[in-house]
Amino acid sequence: MEKEKVYIVGAGVSGLVAALELEKAGFSPIILEGSDTIGGRMKTDEVDGFLLDHGFQVLNTAYPEAKKYLDFQGLKLKTFDPGAVIFDEKDSYLISDPMRNPLKVVGMAFSKVGNFLDKVKMFSLTQELKKQSNEEIFSKPAVPTLQYLKDYGFSPTIIENFFKPFFRGIFLEKHLNTSSRMFEFVFKMFALGHAAVPEKGMGEIPKMLRKQLSSTQIYFETRVKEIQGNAIHLENGEVIIADRIIVAVQPDRVMKQLQGQFAPSRKVINLYFTLQKSFMARPMIGLVKGDHLVNNLVFMDDVSPAYSKGDRSLLSVTVLESDLEEKDLVKEVQLELAGISGVKAEYFKYLKGYWIDYALPNLDDLRYSMPLTECKITDQVYLAGDYLLNGSINAAMTSGRTAAEAIVHSYMRTH
Predict the structure, then answer these.
(1) How far apart are CA 220 and CA 236, in angstroms?
(2) What range(s) does the Amine oxidase domain occupy (predicted)?
(3) In this structure, are 273 and 333 located in the same domain?
(4) What pLDDT, in 10s, does the model give residues 157-178?
(5) Are 351 and 293 within one domain?
(6) Among 146, 161, 193, where does a domain finish?
(7) pTM of the prediction?
């Protein structure tokens, strides 16, 4: 008996996971992808021999869904050292393992970042969160992260020196208004796992998902204009009739009835520079304290040498917001980098920048998972994407799996 024709709009992580799960149930889905490649927001370009991820992204090795779908050895994951290098005007200091083993943190460095009580509170928070399931964390009442940190009793010093620069880079917003549920989840994941990148860039993750597909077809540069009922209207005028559709892009783009339902996404600017050699010389993230354009920086070849070629180091810089023109922004960032490193501004050779308008969904009510019924809009249309849960690779995978399970469940009920 012919199984139903299932179309998936979008070949990002959630769309690929949905296809994988549908294949396991005997379906042969078709993915319609508007661009010329898979991965959605997770892409890696090669420019002059350097590997450039679209935005600084990492995979946390503790993500439950990532463990399910990815072979970490096959990705040749390269891990960051836990902790961070804090850049504070003319000073810089190392804080190692603040979330993994706070009581072992070297005394001197920590005293600049926070006090002894902060260290104890870090430890107790780590222990508390490790005992809680992810579902429990996401079912608690939520407050803004900044409020949560103050209520927990962390000192203003550690909030300014560590929490703000570290979590701004993860949440992509300056004021830590993000829900405390997301903070607790991320904190727990960093306490349990490592931040890592595949040896050859984050684009290897969707490639690995695609390699597991055997009966899925992917049509590239196939832009969907609108979905009406079970009809998919393409921008080229073609109309496809589907039995079921998974919308694995933000649905207001293709469903007129959902326009205006989503807050504007969080944006980020990612600039790449090359330098003769890394001034950090360790696989760690650098956090810039205070009000600067640069929020965080990483020499990617300190983590994975394959990111760089020849004798130059590759520096990834994250800027949360700026209205400057590219040329002016690059100049300002070069001056900031010179200020924190002591290396002359002109030695930072600009390679390429990414202005990412959709970097993270902007959500109020964050969840870890959802019932199958909630990703179903109509009998024909199902939704997948991290915006349904929380902004993470884990959530993108969860949502793809849930949409596929909902279709399988519905199919079994009606056949």
Answers:
(1) 13
(2) 13-407
(3) yes
(4) 999 999 999 999 999 999 999 9
(5) yes
(6) 193
(7) 0.96
Residue 320: give the domain boundaries.
44-78+196-202+266-360
Q: What is the CATH number of the domain that holds 337?
A: 3.90.660.20
